[in-house]
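Q: Convert this sequence to structure tokens.
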Amino acid sequence: MKVIAKKSKTPAFVIGGFLLSGAVLLILGLALNKWVWIIGAAIAAVAFCLIIDYLILPKVYIEASEKEIVIYKKFNYPFHRIKNVTVKKARANGGEFDWGTVTVYTASQTFALRYVENCEGVKGELLELCKH
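A:
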């Protein structure tokens, strides 16, 4: 089985930075004022939920054999059942990251795969496989 799409490591660092900044604001809020503490708590809570979401996802999203793709190691689809693949890259301050969300449309289901490394390459490779 050839690995087509895997989880990027970069979002863990980005989310970890938000978690760290939320913790710093929590500590400063105890000394300064309650509004700083509330903002720090909100940032830390959202970052904690995002890091849990990131850690729950598998390391390999899509694998391909000679005749089909396997999504999440449990959904098998022949190449002719893949209808479309779209990409939404992560962006920040006008810059684009190499990772993002790849949405795979099959004849029966839609899969939105978050935090995919090299999402444009994954899209190209999936569309190339589905042509044959």
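Residues 17 and 47 are 9 Å apart (CA to CA).
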